[in-house]
Amino acid sequence: MVNLDSLSKEEGLKTHLQPVERHFKTEGKELSCSFVLGFPYIFANGNAVKLSTPTVFENDVVWTPLEETVEIFGKAFSKKYTVDTTAKLLKTDSPLAVSSSAKKPSSSSVAKSSSSVAKSSSSVAEKAAPLVRKNAPAGSREVRNIVIDPGHGGKDPGAIGLISNEKDIVLAVSKLLEKELVAMGFHVKLTRSTDKFIQLSERPQIANKWNGDLFISLHCNAIDGNKARKKKTKGFRIYVLRDPESEEDRAIARRENKVAKTYGDKNSKEELSPLDWLKIQARLEQYKQASYTFTEKVIKAYEGGKISKMGSGAGGAGFMVLVGAFMPATLVELGFISNPEEELYMNSEKGQKDMAKRIAKSVQEYKKALDEYLKTLSH
Ligand SMILES: [Zn+2]
C-alpha cells in the first residue's frame, strides 16, 4: 500500500479529505484523483481504475494499493517509480521507501514528509506513517493478529460483584480465549496478562503497534439498584464504537469510561464530544462493516449458551477504549456481574471455558467471512 498523502505532497498535489462523506481528493496540474474510502475504485484524470484492494484510511493516512497507484502517478508525471526495499530510514515494521528515477527524493526528505503528515493529523497516530508498506491495513488483509484486551486491572477492579471483581473474570477468560485462538492458528496478543493497571488510551495503541487485525475488549456489565432489579438485568451484549441509539447503551459506556477515570486515567472522559465523533468518523466508517460482521458472529456463537443476549445482543456507544484502534474493534460485555447467577457462572471454570470457546469460534467465523470478501475483490 502507498501512503497517498505523502506521495501527493512529494509531487506537489493538494489533498482534501472529507471525513463524513469519506471522500478523498488529490489534485494538481498533472493529476486529479478522487475516490471514496473503502471502495476498490479510483477516478484518475476522469478514468475509473479498478484497484486490487479497497482504499483505506488508517493511522490518519489514506492508503492506496501500490501497483495501481504507481501506474497512475507514473503516467501522469512520466516517471518510473520503483520500490527501494533496502531503505531503513522510515519508521515502520516493514520499512520500504519509494524512489523515482526522474527525481530521487533523499531518504531524509521522505522521512520528513511522512512525519509532517503524522504531525498535522490527530495525536492518536504515534509514529510517522511510512510512504509505502508491504501489508495491507486491517480489514483488507487476511485475519491473523488478534488483540484481546482484558478490561481494567491493578488498582482498577472494574465492576464489583458479590464474590468477585470484573478485572479478574475478564483476565481469566482472556487467557482461555488466547489458548483457543492459538490452537486455531491465530497470533494473539493480550494488552495485559497480569493484574496491572493500563490507561484506556494505551490499550488500542498496543494493538496498533502490534499490527492487530481485530481488537476485542472484554468486560462485565453491572447495574446499581435493589436485589430484584439486579436479578432481572442480565445477558451479554457486544458493542461497537458508534453514536448510542439508547440511553441504556450510553449509560454503559459512561460507566466503563468513568471507572477508568476514577482510578487515574487522565486521558479518559465520560462521553465523546461531537467534535470527537467527527474526528474519528472516517476511521469508524472504514472498519464499520468488519466490526459489524464480527458482532454478528459473536451473537451467533453465543446462541445456546448459558448467558443469553441482552436485547438484540448488540449496541453502539462511545467507549474510550475503542477510540484509538486502527482496526475493527469491539467491546464484549460477557454478562452482568451484578446478577448473582451470571456472576457465579462467569467465575466458574466451566463458564469461563465456554465463553472463551464461543468467542474463539466467532473469530474463526469472522476470518472465514473476511476471506470470502477478499476473494470476491481479487476476481
Ligand atoms: Zn469494564
UniProtKB/TrEMBL annotation:
Presence of keyword Hydrolase: yes
GO CC annotations, alphabetized: outer membrane-bounded periplasmic space
Catalytic activity: Hydrolyzes the link between N-acetylmuramoyl residues and L-amino acid residues in certain cell-wall glycopeptides
Keyword Transferase included in the entry's annotation: no
CDD domains the UniProt entry points to: MurNAc-LAA
Keywords assigned by UniProt, alphabetized: Hydrolase
InterPro entries according to UniProt: MurNAc-LAA_cat, N-acetylmuramoyl_amidase_3
Ranges for domain MurNAc-LAA: 204-364
GO molecular function: N-acetylmuramoyl-L-alanine amidase activity
EC number of this enzyme: 3.5.1.28
GO biological process, one term: peptidoglycan catabolic process
Protein's recorded name: N-acetylmuramoyl-L-alanine amidase
Record organism: Hallerella succinigenes
